[in-house]
Design brief:
mainly alpha, 6 helices, 0% strand, 180 residues
Amino acid sequence: MNRPRGLPPWAENALLIGLGVVAVQAPLVPLDLAGRLVPPDLLYGLVVAWVIRRPAATPLWIVVALGLFADVMLSRPLGLGALGLVLATEAFRVRAGRFSGVPFPVEWLAATVGFAAMLAGMQIALELVFAQPPAIGTLVRHLVATALAYPIVVFGLTWCLGLRAARSSQRYTVPAGRLR
């Protein structure tokens, strides 16, 4: 496994959970008094960047728990954001090895397109159940803010923690016992 030097798997998982809680709490800090700023989805950036760099060492239960925590804390429909996060991260998990040799802008574009697809899916789901979806302008600003924050999150993971993209030889395969 490609882990940071000296970190056992439980410590790596604890670090992901701790950073995920911080990423969920960050948008709750009141920085804009007029309410014009839309905060980025730092949890999405963190989890996607982590999964690209550690596909086999990122347990699905952590992604689900962080997604549900974000739904509760950010007053989103319970489970909808978690489902979107799980689907997006699992799509990146199976393709994680492909990001090792590509330039960072390709990864950045893929993460942005994945977030746009997640937002579109959530918008469709809300409209199907006749719930009031967010305005398109708000979603576009949320997408742009998240896209701009993604390189900062990746820089923090790679420079501060030493997490590098998984090599193509470390592609994620589903263990036989995990399908049950």
